[in-house]
Design goal:
Arc Repressor Mutant, subunit A; mainly alpha; Rna Polymerase Sigma Factor, Chain: A; 2 domains; about 200 residues; globular
């Protein structure tokens, strides 16, 4: 039973959710994404202040929402639920980022101060060999994807194109690019899981 005070848009969202769950309708996912991608993106951009991070977090937020769509309760508007997922995911991201960051200007009062090693920007031959091997393995795994997923992964992660650039390159809407790229990433994760020891 949907909320009594639902707006026409919220009711429309609920119809799309039912289509996505009951009929596995890809266009319903794309439509939900196109309705909220900009507002989610700009909210996250204010939080992280980095366009690439905001784009990736937007995709992750929709990914988490779509994976857990059956847990959505129609007592609340889909937009409320989605924004909560996006903000919580972003807070987790910022926490992890903060934990992995040490300021070189930090002052320490005793001899137990941690030793901070600042590596050179260049890789040594062993690191370069390992990186080359990992890259080769990743390319082989990407080759196992369906052609459209393979193309999306290559354009985004190997060529470094933005979502807008991919949209123009493939003549697809931005919402379709983001929805399909999310699926491509999830499929790639499933391929990678059993082979983690080698990567």
């Amino acid at each position: 039973m949907i909320g009594k005070n639902f707006s026409a848009k919220a009711k429309g969202d609920y119809e799309l959710i039912k289509r996505a769950i009951d009929k596995k309708d890809d266009s319903a996912y794309t439509e939900l994404m196109s309705r909220y991608k900009d507002s989610i993106y700009f909210m996250l951009l204010k939080m992280v202040r980095n366009k690439d991070d905001a784009e990736d977090l937007t995709l992750e937020a929709f990914g988490k929402a779509f994976m857990n769509l059956e847990q959505y309760s129609p007592k609340y508007a889909f937009s409320t639920w989605l924004f909560r997922i996006a903000s919580n995911n972003c807070i987790d991201f910022l926490r992890k980022k903060k934990m992995n960051t040490t300021s070189i200007d930090q002052q320490f009062d005793n001899e137990d101060a941690p030793y901070i090693f600042l590596p050179s920007k260049g890789r040594n031959p062993e690191e370069e060999a390992i990186r080359t091997q990992k890259f080769k393995i990743m390319r082989e795994l990407v080759d196992e994807l369906k052609p459209q997923y393979k193309t999306l992964i290559e354009l985004r992660y190997f060529k470094g194109l933005s979502y807008d650039e991919i949209s123009k390159e493939l003549d697809l809407t931005l919402g379709t690019v983001k929805a399909q790229l999310f699926r491509a990433r999830k499929t790639l994760e499933e391929i990678i899981k059993p082979k983690m020891d080698y990567i």
